[in-house]
Design a protein that fits this description.
By secondary structure, the protein is α+β, with helices and mostly antiparallel strands. It is built from twelve helices and nine strands.
Length: 273
Amino acid sequence: MDQLSVILQRFSMNTEVFFTGNLCGISHFNKEPNRGHLHLLLSGELTLIDEEGKSRLVNEPTVLFFPTPHAHRIIGNEDNPPELVCANIIYNESSSNPIANALPSMMSFKLSDDERLKQTADWLFEEAFHERSGQLPMINSLTNIFLIHVLRHVLDNNIMQHGLLAGLAHPQVSIVLLAIHKAPEQPWGLEEMAELAIMSRSKFADIFKRTVGQSPGDYLIDWRIIVAKDLLKKDKPVALVANAVGYENGSALARVFRKKLGISPKQWVEQTR
């Protein structure tokens, strides 16, 4: 399985369309926990004002993508009102999303820059602005597909220089990330990772940290905790979860949880419920 698929299987990243049509006046979008925003401009003209007060004029088919919570305003041009599809991006409430955290607070792409983005957007606009049976689930499904195309665009064009997506785009680091994601229970040491990347230990550790933003060991621990949380939410026994993510027993997993999260696995499960 490819790297992006593995990540998307582990993290909840869904869209929920809440507006389609011509925007008149000013719309405010609040900074809500575990939510981002996606705006697709079909036609017309708008002014986007971000939370720092910076403004930009948009007057051609464009994607405006806020991966993480970010307050902003959209002002429609009265003489040339924008025709929009707007969606919330909803993340798993129990954990931060490393894909979103790896991206800038705001990204924009002209639909003419990527044929796949444009094709999916055309399907989305076609559904959004023509009433048909099953319209809402179709729009939400197409928006989810569109979001994956956006992430592919980021990866294929090496837009990110740091973070998880930058690591997935790196030819050698991505091999190690995919192996860790696929088998977190393996005894991954620096030597094993470097060998997989066909590098010396020092060179691999340096490139990994500069690309991903943390050491290989810290990333491994964080990924194991992410997988453990997923299994714990499915009511798997702590001892079984510990073995599934590379720890000898439940006590070892509990020590890692307390060090990283300040609570035990059982306490974490109680809090999420």
